[in-house]
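Morning F.,

Quick status update on the modeling queue. The single chain you submitted on Monday has been processed. Sequence for confirmation:
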Amino acid sequence: MTFDRPPINLVTFEVFAALGELVDRMEADEDLKVVVFDSADPDFYLAHFDMVPPKEPYTGPTWLDVAGRMARSRVITIASVRGRARGVGNEFILACDMRFASREKAVLGQPEVGAGVTPGGGATERLPLLVGRGRALEIIAGADDFDAETAERYGWINRALPDAELDAYVDRLASRIASFDRRPLAEVKSLVNRSTLPTEADLTAGQDTFRASLARPEAHERIRTLLQRGMQQRGDVEYRLGEHIADR
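Structure tokens below.
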């Protein structure tokens, strides 16, 4: 499955709906064993959530519902990350079963605190399980960008690979997994899930805090300033968001 939403692969409610439909298809396909998620844009995997409010109320599946169903699905999911994955983009790859990233081109981060809000899609719940408490707070409270080598060292991703080798490595792994019987794959994923998935109550608490933080005047001001500077447009602010978000 390839993300391709110019100009920078922003995550919108339409993306949530499309992913919800994809999970429906994953669950209905008795032969499917593994799905790889990559991006058509080498600079942006999934940039972050679209901070411009929608014109009409969204009534589709929530991100937490989609991510939870994907994590509990019998299908193995692999994120092949080339480009920037920040905010809910990073929370998407955290919801995948495995994460592999381009050493030269992947950039990961949780910039929400720098925009005056909190993460609401699982970062505060999933990151500590992978990287530990201190590093999770460094990533989330610091709101900075991280390269793939650091992410690998922290345990955030499985491996950082040379960009020229990323696709072939992920393809080989996905093909290897797909060659095995589906039942043991589903069973081992279910067993590993027992000790590695956050609770629904904790995820809901994070989502509720995020929604409340969006209503704060100081958040509105920070987001408005970032949009005026060029956030959500293809340019220096999005390329170096970790630097710009701390520049008042």
